[in-house]
Amino acid sequence: MTGRTPPGSRAGAGWSTGPVAVDAQGFPVTRTPAGVARSARGARDLAVLDARISGCRACPRLVTWREEVARVKRASFRDEDYWGRPVPGLGPASARIAVVGLAPAAHGGNRTGRVFTGDRSGDWIFAALWRAGLTNQPTSTHVGDGLEPTGVRVAAAVRCAPPDNAPTPAERDTCSPWLARELALLPDLRVVVVLGGFGWTALWPVLAGAGYPLPRPRPAFGHGVEVTLEGPRGPLTLLGSYHVSQQNTFTGRLTEPMLDAVLSRATELAGPG
Fold first, then answer.
1. What mean pLDDT do residues 44-71 have?
2. Tell me, which fold does domain 33-270 have in CATH?
3. Which regions of the chain does DSSP assign to beta strands (E)?
């Protein structure tokens, strides 16, 4: 596994207060669901939050899997140094749009250390974000490739690569405070684009905890579904999109025009930055 720090972070730079365990790379270690909640709640900015996410070890099954993948590696990446950790979000605190996916890919984000980077799903989402004017380039292959999101923060409901790309409900709930705090640290947030039904389900308790009254019954997930909530920071609109998984993109269930339409609607709703 690699000793790289997340983009924009520096090991030891004010990530914690008081005595706290850190790992070999200086990331604060969290080992329990209660610890995740405390650590997330206390993160004062995105850099601190990203570092705390990177040291999380609260889900034993996911820790074992992500580290095994990073040790064994895929043959085509055998000379690379895998990240092998939870993957933090990407994008500025000024973002008016958030994109929430499922989880890092075993040989994508789990390898590169950057969400959606280095796999076919990332090829789709970053190209679409570029077409929508939300990134400076259409590709994202590795940390340091020059990618800069503008006006958008990209994250995942679960931060560790899961076996079979299938986190358990308990793992989703344990990881939930990271997403809750991440969205709370985006003061200008107006739109959340949710990729897939898993993220759609994961987001509702996050929003309830943030003070947004939830509709009853909760709207079912679907591509193009749009729900606007009134909350403590004004209106927030959720937009559903099929996930950019190979299963969806290879079969034509999700096409580029379909994804572009959702992101176009997001930028329209978000307004000028």
1. 97
2. Uracil-DNA Glycosylase, subunit E (3.40.470)
3. 97-101, 152-156, 191-195, 226-231, 234-241
